[in-house]
């Protein structure tokens, strides 16, 4: 970008493009903290529970440090201008999640649930796989615009992933939500991967269609109404979301995909009417499905009156769960400063204490202060993602970055809001914190793609483009 | 494209802000409410997280603690649990707490407000929270004598012994009893044991504290209350003046003759003689002559009609206030509606032995902090004065005659003056059920003070009716309890 000769083109970038420092050393310094903080937390858990520094401290610290180091070196080599904050933030959350999972592994009460006591080593393995995928993205994805070529393959891929849990014999129903598949001894949540693939499809599709969707519209009551035939795509995505809701009975996944599409549609077309349409369609879909789907109804009931749900569950009535109330008690018992690592009783949540409900452990043991810090870490990742979208020079990169960041933000909101009783519970997990291979691996890939986009955005331009309006000339049609 | 991007950024910011506000609501505004919610298991976990303080008798703990599996760390154990159960009650991880364990729970767990400053200091210095102790007034030798006596009879019953000069409860036994240790945990075994102890599964109802919570018709032992009323209301001036007592005596308003147990010399008998042989006609007539109001007044002064708190609650003993003449007569010999807890009859005896002054009965001498500092000490307290010292001494001499050469000879102790009264209370339709055997007594030392007053009741559904009499079944237990107290003072 020729900012020195034509300052007016600065509108696409909030980060200076020419001579921008790579900030790799900043990233390294932050990474040191991102590794040390979980190591101290790990020691803290051991001291609280067993009165001794845990034996695995060195190997754990070394493992996390090694993974972070590999990530850093790869970024330094293959994406030197990438955002310096995202890798440390993801490492910190991942490390803290490992500590919380290990802490719950120690609980006697949770010894009867699946993979009891061994979740932390497994999660470390998943983390290694996640970092491996991250490294692969860094090395093999030289330019995110390559992804544009796979727009329609991505669509098919996303549909395939979303439909997988419905395949008989492969899909697995865990506590009512059918968003899992079983491969050998591994449970995989294809929705986590579909999130990324779908974002690629939406970005590619909308980049091509944005003009048609944005310009051909009629004005009605202050809103630009799209033409009937332009409503097609949003209707298709809406119907797919409703189908997910009906057949996989998962409100979270459904909301996430539809929300992501609406956000990207709005950014692509700059038409507020899409937001209004999107909200209306979400409301109609959610209320419509909730009126006949018992699993969703139960989630809503548990949200409206968790104490009643607890009482029913205690009385042995099937189809009720005390988890929602147990989570609220965990948060309340943590208070302002929390009980300290290892000294809470979030294991009372039992099933999914270390996955969907892991935030309750943070709430109880680190208190309001610690949980707000964790939420702000997520906010920072989202902020860096949005900043990457702003800095990106090509519309595809912008759309992809905002799609991924927006989906990330929605996921954090839907999960944290669900666990904290703000909205009905859904079957999704906190990115990086929660136990679960699919989630960790997919989110590391997500960070990888965002870093790639930010590297491209912040990289000093090798030569001035022919036209000052870089945005319009970089459109590459698939 | 950047304008909508910035708006989406604001939207994401709002999402996070909503979460932060919700978090503050949960963990700040609602925190205490959630934290102290009775259904929140953390409340119970905290409760059993440290060893509970002990209940002390004669300087020794009759309780202990054991570690348990699961998230409740400590559970209560009891030494001679069955013997002490009426005193301690129980505390169970699964079934809560009762009686002393419940009343002084704050001290025993260390949560009491009076320990707040100490707890705060401990928190700063990193010391673990501990429970304080409850020091009781009980006498272990007397308790053992009482419980073993009941156990030997193998019949349901209860014993209460009180130190008349202070109101200290020295013994409180109930039989059949139960060992609270078996229900202290929260495992299946505890649940099974609990079910076995419930009244619906166990007709003996071992968890009933008969000393405090069962009311029995007191039968002839109530005659000492009637005698006290006669002296206090000046119906008769002394133990040895002739009473106006015809034999046979038809109860006013009825055609029914009030019967004595056998052919007794009850016509115009003195109060002393009437008490010695236990004349129904004399005391029935006394009650009729005094009337409902005066009888009730005296009975109330002894503690009837009120629940007592020692500090464990006892049932209220009964003397009705709306009876006709014949009902008053029957009530005055401990029948009709009249009913008393063993504690109540021990209180009657102790008031007489303490020269007419009834001391408020209590069984917690002191509450101790974990470091054994006394937090609260119970001082003896006068509850009422049912009769004058002179009248009390007249009544004492009458009761001593009963033991010396009346129905209560089984309670005689060498070298000790003993006063007592037997009772054989009839109950059921037409007195069809087996009677209760009562014995109340006190011992008096050479200086005229009384170290112990005791009430014993035995209900025996299996015994032959004639075999049951206060003197035969209950008096030997009373004697052993009194001896145990006297021996322990030497």
Automatic annotation (TrEMBL), chain B:
<protein>
    <submittedName>
        <fullName>Penicillin-binding protein 2</fullName>
    </submittedName>
</protein>
<dbReference type="GO" id="GO:0008658">
    <property type="term" value="F:penicillin binding"/>
</dbReference>
<dbReference type="InterPro" id="IPR050515">
    <property type="entry name" value="Beta-lactam/transpept"/>
</dbReference>
<dbReference type="InterPro" id="IPR054120">
    <property type="entry name" value="PBPA_dimer"/>
</dbReference>
<dbReference type="GO" id="GO:0005886">
    <property type="term" value="C:plasma membrane"/>
</dbReference>
<dbReference type="Pfam" id="PF00905">
    <property type="entry name" value="Transpeptidase"/>
</dbReference>
<dbReference type="GO" id="GO:0071555">
    <property type="term" value="P:cell wall organization"/>
</dbReference>
<feature type="domain" description="Penicillin binding protein A dimerisation">
    <location>
        <begin position="52"/>
        <end position="134"/>
    </location>
</feature>
<dbReference type="InterPro" id="IPR001460">
    <property type="entry name" value="PCN-bd_Tpept"/>
</dbReference>
<dbReference type="InterPro" id="IPR012338">
    <property type="entry name" value="Beta-lactam/transpept-like"/>
</dbReference>
<dbReference type="Pfam" id="PF21922">
    <property type="entry name" value="PBP_dimer_2"/>
</dbReference>
<feature type="domain" description="Penicillin-binding protein transpeptidase">
    <location>
        <begin position="157"/>
        <end position="483"/>
    </location>
</feature>
<dbReference type="GO" id="GO:0071972">
    <property type="term" value="F:peptidoglycan L,D-transpeptidase activity"/>
</dbReference>
């Amino acid at each position: 970008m020729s900012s020195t000769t034509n300052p007016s083109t600065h509108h696409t970038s909030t980060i200076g493009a020419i001579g921008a420092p790579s900030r790799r050393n900043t990233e390294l310094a932050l990474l040191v903290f991102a590794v040390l903080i979980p190591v101290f937390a790990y020691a803290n858990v051991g001291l609280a529970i067993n009165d001794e520094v845990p034996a695995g401290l060195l190997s754990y610290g070394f493992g996390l440090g090694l993974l972070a180091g590999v990530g850093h070196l790869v970024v330094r080599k293959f994406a030197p201008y990438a955002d310096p904050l995202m890798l440390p933030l993801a490492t910190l959350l991942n490390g803290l999640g490992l500590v919380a999972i290990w802490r719950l592994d120690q609980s006697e009460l949770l010894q009867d649930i699946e993979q009891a006591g061994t979740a932390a080593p497994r999660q470390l393995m998943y983390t290694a796989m996640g970092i491996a995928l991250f490294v692969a993205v860094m090395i093999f994805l030289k330019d995110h615009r390559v992804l544009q070529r796979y727009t329609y393959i991505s669509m098919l891929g996303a549909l395939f992933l979303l439909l997988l849990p419905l395949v008989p014999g492969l899909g697995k129903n865990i506590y009512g939500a059918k968003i899992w598949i079983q491969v050998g001894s591994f449970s995989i949540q294809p929705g986590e991967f579909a999130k990324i693939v779908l974002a690629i499809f939406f970005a590619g599709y909308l980049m091509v269609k944005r003009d048609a969707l944005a310009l051909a519209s009629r004005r009605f009551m202050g809103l630009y109404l799209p033409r009937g035939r332009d409503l097609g795509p949003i209707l298709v995505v809406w119907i797919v979301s409703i189908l997910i809701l009906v057949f996989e009975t998962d409100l979270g996944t459904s909301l996430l995909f539809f929300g992501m599409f609406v956000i990207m549609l709005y950014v692509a077309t700059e038409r507020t009417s899409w937001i209004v349409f999107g909200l209306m369609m979400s409301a109609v879909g959610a209320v419509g499905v909730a009126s006949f789907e018992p699993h969703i109804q139960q989630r809503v009931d548990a949200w409206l009156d968790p104490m009643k749900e607890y009482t029913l569950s205690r009385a042995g009535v099937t189809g009720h769960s005390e988890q929602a109330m147990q989570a609220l008690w965990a948060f309340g018992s943590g208070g302002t400063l929390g009980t300290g690592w290892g000294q809470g009783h979030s294991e009372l949540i039992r099933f999914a204490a270390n996955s969907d409900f892991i935030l309750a452990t943070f709430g109880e043991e680190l208190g309001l202060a610690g949980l707000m810090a964790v939420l702000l870490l997520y906010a920072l990742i989202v902020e860096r993602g949005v900043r990457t979208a702003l800095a990106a020079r090509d519309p595809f990169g912008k759309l992809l970055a905002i799609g991924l960041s927006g989906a990330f933000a929605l996921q954090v909101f839907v999960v944290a809001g669900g666990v904290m009783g703000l909205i009905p519970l859904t079957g999704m997990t906190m990115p990086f914190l929660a136990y679960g291979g699919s989630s960790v691996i997919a989110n590391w890939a997500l960070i990888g793609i965002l870093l790639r986009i930010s590297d491209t955005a912040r990289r000093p331009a090798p030569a001035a483009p022919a036209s000052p309006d870089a945005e319009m000339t970089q459109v590459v049609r698939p | 494209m950047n304008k909508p991007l910035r708006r989406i950024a604001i939207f994401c910011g709002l999402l996070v802000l909503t979460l932060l506000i919700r978090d503050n609501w949960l963990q700040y505004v609602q925190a205490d409410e959630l934290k102290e919610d009775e259904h929140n298991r953390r409340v119970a976990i905290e409760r059993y997280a440290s060893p509970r303080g002990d209940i002390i008798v004669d300087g020794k703990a009759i309780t202990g603690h054991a570690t348990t599996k699961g998230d409740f760390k400590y559970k209560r154990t009891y030494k001679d649990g069955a013997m002490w159960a009426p005193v301690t009650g129980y505390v169970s991880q699964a079934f809560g707490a009762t009686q002393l364990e419940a009343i002084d729970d704050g001290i025993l767990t260390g949560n009491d407000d009076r320990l707040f400053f100490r707890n705060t200091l401990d928190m700063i210095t990193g010391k673990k929270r501990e429970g304080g102790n409850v020091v009781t007034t009980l006498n272990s030798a007397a308790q053992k004598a009482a419980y073993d006596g009941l156990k030997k009879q193998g019949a349901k019953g209860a014993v209460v012994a009180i130190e008349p000069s202070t109101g200290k409860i020295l013994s409180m036994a109930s039989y059949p009893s139960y060992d609270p240790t078996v229900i202290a945990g929260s495992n299946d075994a505890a649940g099974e044991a609990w079910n076995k102890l419930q009244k619906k599964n166990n007709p003996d109802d071992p968890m009933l504290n008969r000393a405090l919570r069962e009311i029995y018709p007191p039968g002839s032992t109530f005659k000492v209350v009637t005698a006290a009323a006669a002296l206090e209301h000046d119906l008769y001036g002394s133990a040895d003046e002739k009473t106006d007592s015809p034999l046979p005596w038809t109860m006013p308003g009825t055609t029914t003759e009030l019967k004595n147990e056998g052919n007794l010399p009850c016509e115009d008998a003195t109060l002393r003689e009437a008490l010695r042989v236990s004349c129904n006609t004399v005391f029935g007539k006394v009650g009729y002559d005094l009337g409902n109001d005066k009888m009730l007044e005296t009975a109330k002064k002894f503690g009837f009609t009120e629940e007592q708190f020692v500090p464990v609650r006892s049932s209220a003993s009964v003397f009705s206030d709306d009876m006709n003449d014949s009902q008053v007569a029957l009530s005055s010999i401990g029948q009709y509606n009249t009913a008393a807890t063993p504690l109540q009859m021990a209180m009657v005896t102790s008031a007489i032995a303490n020269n007419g002054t009834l001391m408020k009965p209590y069984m917690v001498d002191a509450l101790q902090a974990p470091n054994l500092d006394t937090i609260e000490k119970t001082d003896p307290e006068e509850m009422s004065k049912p009769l004058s010292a002179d009248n009390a001494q007249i009544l004492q001499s009458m009761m001593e005659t009963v033991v010396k050469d009346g129905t209560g000879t089984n309670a005689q102790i060498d070298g000790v003056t003993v006063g007592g009264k037997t009772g054989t209370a009839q109950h059921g339709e037409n007195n069809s059920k087996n009677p209760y055997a009562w014995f109340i007594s006190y011992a008096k030392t050479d200086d005229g003070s009384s170290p112990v007053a005791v009430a014993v009741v035995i209900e025996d559904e299996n015994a032959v009716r004639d075999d049951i009499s206060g003197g035969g079944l209950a008096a030997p237990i009373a004697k052993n309890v009194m001896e145990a107290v006297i021996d322990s003072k030497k």
